[in-house]
């Protein structure tokens, strides 16, 4: 039959004992005389020992809970044994019969009482306080005798957190809050959705555009003689990207729940910064345009967007995006995908660096390229090959013109 373990009486004036901590859990084996729990009253702490061998069948009083002496705190018995509650009279009789042993234990314990200036804190509360860096000497205990409980520590942590928040607010001083609305709200929602709903990875590479810079200068002079607008470096980059997309169809695709959609036409989105945000007009069927036609289309779209003349401008349906931060002095960065596209190319600022070409040291123009792609659609190796193809066109610019 299961054995009842009761809260002992730690002194004649004791009205309540508190379970500081359980050393065993339900289902654990116990040995007679083994400490199974720690208890305390106002001035005394002691360990409760198992009265017999067996298994801890049930715990009736949880940690931090206080109960009167004689209250059953747990049961010990054989594995899977059913607990039979004793009748009230029998329980009282057993409590009285064991009172001599309890008193004897009390006398032995009271010979070594806790010093009055000793801080009383439950093991759980102490563990939390130490882990949080709290000074337990400053915590006011709410349990009998000023004992600090878990709830007291949590209350103090909350209080300190609120105080830190107040200090931060004071340090910030006066603030102005502008509601998130309009274009800024749309951009925020789309960018967050992009990161949450795709597996984005960014790889980087540098392209030696020394020959491209020279070619552009030569083309510039030719265009000026004919009275036409000059080609920008970005025009060449967009054209090189379009040609590379024609060779790597997996990059000109979109992720769908039912599969991957490969697009026949190359519709390039051109990120254009405006005063209140960012817009991405689309150059449709860019694979059918020449370098000059691509440049002319980009210039018209960008100018219209910046002037706010967006009627008839296509802002959706892009299959790949190019964003250029080179004019801001940025090198490598991590562009965020424009859903549902598979890739976006980030272009940085050209840097003049000395490089050996053969045995000769030359000044070269290096262009940083950052490719973000959706890893659900494309693996790292194919994405790197795509970026290599773009680099190949930029380093051999005559191929862009052919």
UniProtKB/TrEMBL annotation:
<dbReference type="InterPro" id="IPR001078">
    <property type="entry name" value="2-oxoacid_DH_actylTfrase"/>
</dbReference>
<feature type="compositionally biased region" description="Basic and acidic residues">
    <location>
        <begin position="156"/>
        <end position="175"/>
    </location>
</feature>
<feature type="domain" description="Lipoyl-binding">
    <location>
        <begin position="2"/>
        <end position="77"/>
    </location>
</feature>
<dbReference type="InterPro" id="IPR011053">
    <property type="entry name" value="Single_hybrid_motif"/>
</dbReference>
<feature type="region of interest" description="Disordered">
    <location>
        <begin position="156"/>
        <end position="177"/>
    </location>
</feature>
<keyword id="KW-0808">Transferase</keyword>
<comment type="similarity">
    <text>Belongs to the 2-oxoacid dehydrogenase family.</text>
</comment>
<dbReference type="InterPro" id="IPR004167">
    <property type="entry name" value="PSBD"/>
</dbReference>
<keyword id="KW-0012">Acyltransferase</keyword>
<keyword id="KW-0670">Pyruvate</keyword>
<dbReference type="Pfam" id="PF00364">
    <property type="entry name" value="Biotin_lipoyl"/>
</dbReference>
<protein>
    <recommendedName>
        <fullName>Dihydrolipoamide acetyltransferase component of pyruvate dehydrogenase complex</fullName>
        <ecNumber>2.3.1.-</ecNumber>
    </recommendedName>
</protein>
<feature type="domain" description="Peripheral subunit-binding (PSBD)">
    <location>
        <begin position="120"/>
        <end position="157"/>
    </location>
</feature>
<dbReference type="InterPro" id="IPR036625">
    <property type="entry name" value="E3-bd_dom_sf"/>
</dbReference>
<dbReference type="InterPro" id="IPR023213">
    <property type="entry name" value="CAT-like_dom_sf"/>
</dbReference>
<dbReference type="InterPro" id="IPR050743">
    <property type="entry name" value="2-oxoacid_DH_E2_comp"/>
</dbReference>
<dbReference type="Pfam" id="PF02817">
    <property type="entry name" value="E3_binding"/>
</dbReference>
<dbReference type="Pfam" id="PF00198">
    <property type="entry name" value="2-oxoacid_dh"/>
</dbReference>
<dbReference type="InterPro" id="IPR000089">
    <property type="entry name" value="Biotin_lipoyl"/>
</dbReference>
<keyword id="KW-0450">Lipoyl</keyword>
